[in-house]
Fold this protein.
Amino acid sequence: MIDWLVAAALAAQGGASERHEHGLPFFELKIERQLPSRRTTFELFEVGEGEQTTLLIERRIDELGGSSRHDVTTRECLYLGSVVEAVTELGVPTLYIEGISPPEPPASHSPSTLYEFRGFVEHPNGEMGEISLSSYDEDRGAEDSLRQWANSLAHNFEECLAEG
Amino acid sequence: MIEALLALALASQDLDAWDMDDQGDERLILAFTAYDMRIGRRTSFRISEVEIYGERMPFVQRMIVQRQGRSRHQLTATGCPAIRRLLRSAAALPMPSPGLVRIGPIASGTRADADWYRLEGTIVWPDGRRETIRVESVEEEGVEPSPIAGWGRSLMRAFQSCVERDMTEEEERVEND
């Protein structure tokens, strides 16, 4: 998050962000599989001007043996836009406070895929801030809202690519 | 504003030092930081749980860093009963969903009269896995506080009140001795 603040400050000084030609993303989602090791990163940007403005989703895959980079705009793949927007309805649980919140069943510790989300929030008073949250895929129980949304984004992105 | 953001980013980096202190063996419940950009004062809280005479209780440490220097205070829920009430309200704080909010270039000359808040805690997903969540908010002066900022300000007021009461009692004890 601190990196983003520094990037915002540097971008504000007039130069383009060195991190990406599109500037700062709306969010960054990482899906990191352990075995075999593979990291998929999605970032959402706004590109174009005026009536040509569209959202662009970029996917980078880094794995043993190479990496790839693809992007799709919501103009090219309309339904991907609604998948992206579904992040705003992602249910985030309230804080767990030891001794106050109801006890939860202990979780096992055998993560196979890590999901990490970094983005922004708009608070009820209209002010903005950043948010980061994560989850693990463990082959147990129902998917949580973050995994569900992330998997839907990954699946639909792949479909959009396949459709050309 | 650029300077404020850079100062904020640099100030934030120092937050990591908090975890490096000698409290590493306690279970962290919550961490909260408020940074006043106008005067460059950072107030950080670390709420953990400690065991005292067999009883587990919340333990709150506060660190204030500002130009004039720094201060550290610590209190348990026994010394500051308001802490338990604040933890109960933290458990009910609504966590915001992400938004499609773009932080674009900041126009030069933008005022930096704002406070920055960061709340770090734990959420439990339906499968029982506990994960860390961090939510931040930059709030301009005069705006109704967000739930996170509102909670944090209550924490700051309650803790300060407990510290002042402790100091008054200590002064009275010294006078009586």
